Structure formats: structure tokens, C-alpha cells
Amino acid sequence: MQHNEVEPEETPASGVVAVHDELVRLVRQLVAGDRPPVGSPTFAQHSLLSFVARNPGCRATQISDAFGVHRSTVSRQLRGCIDEGWVHAEPGPLRSGHPLSLTDGGVAVLAGADARRVEEVRDRVASWSDGEIAAFARHLRKFRQGGDTDHDNIGDDTRA
Length: 160
Description:
Number of strands: 2
Order of helices and strands: HHHHEEHH
Structural class: mainly alpha
Distance between the termini: 56 Å
CATH class of the domain at 36-145: Mainly Alpha
Shape: globular
Radius of gyration: 20 Å
């Protein structure tokens, strides 16, 4: 007796599961993917550098609040960025944190990382039509914004 495998019927629920699974894979790839070239920021450092670039004088507590992570996580990433010479911490009261700014080296490394990330995207969509790329961007934006107006600005930094 022969059993024919039947493809599962595509349902809205299975489509949602497929979207979820691809998002999980994408996030894992972004966060834990290939090691950045020597002298380049990790994904987490890149996010931190982008925030400091947009918010000169910010403090680690503000980054922690904006990213929704514990301050110790930010401090660890920040220490790496300071040690690399990308971020400068101004003198200030320890309790409220030190005002942060990018060094010239930090500005340069951020620009280089931004350019590499854009090139990575360009390579991945090289065989797509302009219409497919525009539609993909629209769908991603629509998905990111969802119906939650309280979080419309989260993720608006295109460099992180």
C-alpha cells in the first residue's frame, strides 16, 4: 500500500507561523550572525553607537530605557565602545551617568558599518525588481508599525 504525502493546506494560521519562523531566523542571523570585521562594531554596539549619534549627551540610563534592556547590558556594550575609542564619556555625577558622545573614530566606524549593512541588503535584493523592493519595504514598515501607536517610533532608527 502506497501512502501519498499530502502538502498541508496553506491557512492564515500557517502563514502567520511561517512569518514568525522567518522573523526568528532573521533576528538570530542579525544578532548572532557572522562576526563583524576587526575594528567594526557588533550588532549591539552598532545600535548603541547609532543611539548616541542621534542623542549626543545621552546617558546609559536613557539608552537602557530606549532599548528596554537592563543597564548592566548597556554598560557592558558601552565599555567595549569606550575601550575601542568610539565613545567618549564626559565627566559627570556617577549617579545620573556620564554624558556620552561619539569620538571622530566612532563617527567613522558608524559610517563604515552603516555602509556595509546597506551593501549587505543591496546584495540580498540584487535580483529583485524595484517594485518588489518597494513592496517589501512597505510590508516591513506596515508589520513593524502594527496597530500599536504607543511604539510607532521604536525601531525608527534606520542605522541600528
